[in-house]
Description:
This protein is mostly helical. It is globular and about 120 Å long. The protein starts with 25 loop residues before the first strand and ends with a helix. Mean pLDDT is 85; it is low at 9-24, 275-283 and 515-529.
Amino acid sequence: MDGVPRVPEQRRPGSAKDEAEPAAALRFGVLGPVRAWRGEEQLPTGSPQQRALLAALLLREGRTATAAELIDALWGEEPPSQALAAVRTYASRLRKVLDPGVLVSESGGYAVRGLAEGALDLAAAQELASEAEKARSAGDLCHARDMLGRALALWDGEVLAGVPGPYAEAQRVRLEEWRLQLLESRLDMDLEQGCHAEAVSALTALTAEHPLRERLRELLMLALYRSGRQAEALAVYADTRRLLADELGVDPRPGLKELQQRILQADPALAEPSAPAAEPAAVPVRPAQLPATVPDFTGRATFVSELSEVLASAEGRVMAVSALAGIGGVGKTTLAVHVAHQARAAFPDGQLYVDLQGAGPRAAEPETVLGAFLRALGTADSAIPDSLQERAALYRSLLDGRRVLVLLDNARDAAQVRPLLPGTEGCAALVTSRVRMVDLAGAHLVDLDVMSPDEALSLFTKIVGEERVASEREAALDVVAACGFLPLAIRIAASRLAARRTWTVSVLAAKLADERRRLDELQAGDLAVKATFELGYGALDPAQARAFRLLGLADGPDISLAAAAAVLDLPPEDTEDLLEALVDTSLLESAAPGRYRYHDLVRLYARACAERDEWPPSERDAALSRLLDFYLATTALVYEIEHPGDRLTDDLEPTRYPGLSFSEATAALDWLYTEAGQLLACVRQAAGTERLPRAVDLLWAAKDLTESGANSHQYEMTARATCEATRAVGHERAEGRARTVLSDVLLVSGRIQPAEQEARVAMELAGSAQDATAVSWVANNRGLICLHEGRFAEGKVFFDQALEGLRAAGNRPFEATVLGNLSRAHLGMGNIVKAVEIAQRGLAVHTEIGRTVRLANGHFALGVALTRAGRYAEALSQFSDALGIFNDHRQRLWEGVTHFRIAEVHAADRRPSQAAQHAEQALALGCIGGDRMQGNVLTLLGRSLAALGQADRASACWREALNLFEQNGAAEANAVRALLSSAAVA
């Protein structure tokens, strides 16, 4: 749609200087019930006819309405005999309520004058819509959307609700049409900004409410298509065509037909929003992510010329790719950044950069990198797809028609790089790696060797200074030769000399001449870099050297100051001083305030130093033990904050080193999600050590990570690794807990059979180890598995077992949660009254404890029971309470499954439009239960759409659900086949 819709048939109010002063405290509302306020006090507006008179005057925006016009507005063609007297009475009553001079008599009629700006909600909405139109014309879609959202928020139910008369009815129709136009415009902007997944839910409900409104159908088709749901998009068209033919005897308008054809042809232009920028700007986002080039770049003239020539050819080629290979420290990144800066003018649409961490143990995942690139290109987080394939497709679409340079630094292999290549004419990629990428099709390969002696000496001279080198040229040549002519080694040595004015070049050369301080074979692969790091390490004082060695032992992408203090067993202040000193020597990087990281090769070198120099050797294990203690103690505290009263933390392995404390729950959750990668790395690193039981408990205490949907894959891989590690050492208690955690993960993702296998083994191990806590947890898991498989009586047995153990342990919060699960078992057995009573008992315990995430579980369980009891209003209230708490605690998957349950209530209460809307929200968020639950959501969505007459889209949903059920061997597949068969017959 072009522009923002204006309110139909409205004129701006004129000014009347001779009227009363504005009554600033008065406010009026017509976009809902007709109401008046003085400040925050609501004023009485009288009978329906009196409100009709007030509405008629307000909607004239200061213009006078004659008595005849008012009579016609209130009663139409059949006014009562005393109509004029009634109008005068209503006007007199309103004058007594309103401020003096507001309702005035004039020329035998009446008018409302002197209102402050924005005193009428309709006028405020008009002003906001006008501002939105200006913002959209200027290309500022974010501001335009915000203004329209604020305008639409002023509606409060039906316009002029309960007001009689033909005038009010006409105004209701007019203003409702304007509201829909504004809503269509806002949704159109949503799609322009890539918010298609969120728009599907709203559009599904709106098309059900206004089935003949083709613009809404068109927007829904586009939103579904961009969400990867092509079959449903085409089904919407089929439903619309059939509905229009049945109801009106007409065909869809040309725009709708054209969209259908473009979807059938997979028109690439449909796959991306026309204005994907998420930030308010009149021009597309232009990333400029290149790191700063070094001012003393030296040599490499042949390579600079060669690479620049390849980049210059990008405009006429499908894609220009150059891959630089060489050992660590040879200057690949420096060369690539220098060439990229020289070529910036050829890529006016921006430059992207990422360190792929390919030399480390855990290289950057392509999907993670694509997420960062998409955000840099202006894509909203909500519009970024989940899968690698979808992210790569959107990335290529965004780059189509643009000239962008992509620098992929420190790549592991060609497989990591391929999804990150632009693939379109005009774009180019520079790749650096320690491996030669012969399998990267079409790439221009460059093998980067060490510097020539002249280049090495020139670099050294630029850093140290001509005066100091000129008199000691032979010593300088000795220095660069000792550095193996590696640029990184030369830069470190020269920087040390430049920072020490009392040293001569000969002093530095003499230090490097000691072969005990550098490696004998500088050309031994990656180990060649160690010689350069030896220079910096040797210059550290003992405390700095110890910090350098020990911090390198910890896995993980980076480390916080508090965690580093635990590794070093020092106060945070002293730790920060040491870390900042290491940053000054370039042996450590400051990733962000309070966070530090090693270059991947420096980390390897630090570990080699720890193995060689740390004494006694047991200090290495002690450092990692302190780190694990820190993470376990802090994570346990976060668990206690999130689950007050839960006794799990009482039964975790003891720790000697303390953790952090938090003043509020939000800070605790922030810490957990920020440190997730480091926590899980710490758990994995404990395999094969005495730390393993504590590591398993750390994983267990951090279980909220997987239920929130955050780090789910990494958490699962860590759980599997701990299962194997504990089995290998024969630690029954730890293995039982590890398998309990793994069964949790599998349950959350809906993989019921593997979850049951793990739970059976966990139960046996926990029983053998007399681990009562794990027995109770795994009994609950087995009960949940039984619920999924329809074995309700058996599930009740397991829940009873769990309750017995929890009561013995005094774990009331978890006991209340299991009561909610037991309620579902009774529902399955047909004991609905009993189920409601048990769920109420569980909720009562949760309520007594306070507003925790478990309280949401209690509301959720009671909502499920009340739904089965047919008490739909009460069920919706419970689910609404649960939804708010899940949102506060960042439990996205639980939010999704709650929306599904709300959809079930609406479907049972024959409100298919609302059911479809909440089912769409469940799909957008994801649900506990993985693919199987997604299949259930799609099945319910299909039923709701079928009830709304959208048969083709319903069938598309059912086919997708059937595919998911068949992939997982779910019994629900039979019911969906029956639905599809019935639809085919119909």
